[in-house]
């Protein structure tokens, strides 16, 4: 391969466009999420480099390990290092939620409105650290803010993670479980809240999944396994109580 003097540590190989196409987000090996502004005009960060090439300067960058350090519950329980980002995707039912999945199996959400990490899931560590050498690819379910993640645990399966935007989400960094009859209790009033979302659960499978995708209409999950098998999980089965 031709050596072009690239620094492979800073290689960006994940790109997602924020609807309606103004901001593009990228990520890669260093555990950093980048953002560029693609709009034209004086407020844009773009300038013409040549007749057929426009250069867009970096708008912002977010080092996830530094953002994790600001989450007290996470900092108290985990040793935090920079890890490679292997997947980013926008939530089809909540456009400002950008999910990320790290090589060590951690998953979370960056709120692109507030620029905060709002959700985290840190699965149990696995004795076989070589399992983390395999990049696993998650997927959003289309209508429910549930994030399907191939498990890194000893049990083959898919984690279905509750990434609803409300603090009653099981993965929210400010998780609240003090709700009754669809309301969250505050010091003064009962704040209306949506019905309690599904909790995190592990759907056990017969083979270890490496990647999954979902049907955009009916939510059927298709998982590809390490044995080159395709497993199909209906949304109805996935939503059954464990």
Automatic annotation (TrEMBL):
Keywords: Membrane, Repeat, Transmembrane, Transmembrane helix, WD repeat. The chain crosses the membrane at residues 12-36. InterPro entries: WD_repeat_multifunction. This is Transducin/WD40 repeat-like superfamily protein.
């Amino acid at each position: 391969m031709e050596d072009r003097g690239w620094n492979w540590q800073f290689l960006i190989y994940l790109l997602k466009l924020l609807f309606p196409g103004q901001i593009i987000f990228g990520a890669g090996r260093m555990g950093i999420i980048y953002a560029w502004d693609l709009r034209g005009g004086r407020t844009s960060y773009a300038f013409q480099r040549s007749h057929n090439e426009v250069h867009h300067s970096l708008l912002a960058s977010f080092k996830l390990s530094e953002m994790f350090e600001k989450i007290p519950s996470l900092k108290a329980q985990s040793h935090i290092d920079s890890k490679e980002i292997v997947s980013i995707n926008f939530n089809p039912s909540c456009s400002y939620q950008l999910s990320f999945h790290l090589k060590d199996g951690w998953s979370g959400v960056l709120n692109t409105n507030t620029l905060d990490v709002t959700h985290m899931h840190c699965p149990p560590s696995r004795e076989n650290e070589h399992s983390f050498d395999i990049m696993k690819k998650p997927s959003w379910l289309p209508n429910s803010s549930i994030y399907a993640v191939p498990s890194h645990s000893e049990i083959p399966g898919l984690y279905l993670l509750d990434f609803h935007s409300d603090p009653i989400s099981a993965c929210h960094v400010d998780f609240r479980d003090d709700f009754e009859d669809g309301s969250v209790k505050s010091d003064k009033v009962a704040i209306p809240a949506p019905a309690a979302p599904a909790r995190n659960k592990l759907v056990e499978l017969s083979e270890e999944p490496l990647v999954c995708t979902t049907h955009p209409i009916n939510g059927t999950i298709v998982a590809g396994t390490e044995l080159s098998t395709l497993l199909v999980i209906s949304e109805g089965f996935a939503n059954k109580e464990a």
